[in-house]
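Q: For a teaching handout, I want to show students what a protein-ligand complex looks like in token form. Below are the inputs, and the small molecule is flavin-adenine dinucleotide. Please produce the holo structure.
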Amino acid sequence: MTTRPAPVIVWFRQDLRLADNPALDHAVRTGRPLIPVYILDDGPAVRRIGAASRWWLDGSLRALDADLRRRGAQLVLRRGDSEAELRRLIAETGADTVFMNRRFEPDAFLHDADIAHALTADGVECHGYNGALLARPGAVRTGSGGPYRVFTPFLKALLEAAAPPAPMPAPAAVEAVSRLASGSLDDWALRPTTPDWAGGFDWTPGEAGAATALAAFVGRGLKTYSKGRDHPAEPSVSRLSPHLHWGEIHPWRAVETARRAASNGHVAPAEAEKFVAELGWRDFSAQLLHHFPQMTDTAFRPGYDLMPWRDDPDGLEAWKRGRTGYPIIDAGMRQLWTTGWMHNRVRMIVASFLVKDLLIDWRAGEAWFWDTLVDADLASNVQNWQWVAGSGADASPWFRIFNPVTQGQKFDADGRYVRRWVPELARLPDRWLHAPWTAPAEVLRAAGVRLDRGGYPAPIVDHAAARDRALQALRALPATGD
Ligand code: FAD
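A: Here is the structure, written as tokens, with flavin-adenine dinucleotide included.
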């Protein structure tokens, strides 16, 4: 009598794709039946997925399940404590191996390691891979063996040391264990209903959506990426961030596609390399957080934790709702709320406004972004907030305080971005668009703009005074070095 080989589990997490997926590839190579599973674990071990990201997750899991079904399998959905659910699945099926792509955020990394140790102790093999980053954190080190704290040498070393993995096509067919109990995404209710605040989200989560976004970007925005990426009204950026966060595409595929466009003469090499450098910031953020896990809660440069942050619930609320009276800030915050995403240039301006003009703790902004971004990513979010705040590694100096009016005039000179997201200012001429309170009364009247509580708000702070206040607070800090 022949005994059936034990099945193997593929534990999907932030790697919701079939191609270039090392865990899946290794599992398929065993030749044994697979159990593809996603476990929704809202336990305390890792930070709870934010609301906009849950919206994305719903779509991405549906897409992954459909892709598996086309290959003869299906995604098993389980909800609860990850280790307990894996053990239950092992008991149900006799599976003896778990394949997973590692998560590198510190809490998730430790949690996964604990689970792997516990299962291994009980005779279950666990295999982990890097399917998320250009290089695993720790693979690229300084001459003295430590982690990089400065981006430019990190990028140089990364691109010298790391090489793209060989392509791993999606398997043509997946032999899977059938008839396993599975939860239902409808029951999980990851998307909001009453009210459906995500009605304006216009995204296609999933591996096919990621490929389409990359192809569209390489065909258009990449040509003028280095300059165009600073102008939020231009379609010059890839909008790949949520796809990358959820692992719907391997970052090396994005690098290779951009470089191929350059070698085919479709775009200038410098444009492709600028895009590669931005992907490098993603790796830089991940390796920083991996090596300095306290960064999620405390300033990378400890002196900054002595900033006299203001308790200003009204200011914070005005910022969140896009009612600060500064059009570029309000446009960005409304774009975020309506679409689950904000252009990078505007992320920098709104973050600077919160931290420096309002003197509100960067952690409050980071938390709001975490909940409202479809690309919310612990490493990138924390690293960038600390970068803007001046407290991070290789950060923007604290004394560089963005002026929201001149930033708007410079990067949204024709006002297309502000007019789209702040329609009550649409008829205001360019000259006053980024500072409506400076417009003569008759200009405001002709444009139908009222600067009051019922209309568009007057500025909630005076930028020049706020700037002085911020600089004074900074100078009073005892030490701001690292
Ligand atoms: P592109 O310009 O097309 O860049 C390609 C890819 O490179 C991006 O998808 C992203 O993966 C990576 N990238 C680009 N810029 C950065 C950067 N500064 N840091 C890290 N990776 C980068 N990005 C997130 O993915 N998640 C976040 O939670 C996040 N929070 C941020 C918070 C603040 C305050 C700021 C200033 C930036 C934040 N970013 C975050 C970085 C950046 O704004 C987004 O990655 C970018 O806007 C995504 O749009 P895109 O895919 O069109 O970018």
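A: Two things your students might notice: The mean pLDDT is 96. Residues 229, 237-241, 244-245, 278-279, 281-282, 285, 344, 347-348, 351, 369, 373, 375-377, 380-381, 384-385, 388 surround flavin-adenine dinucleotide (CB under 6 Å).
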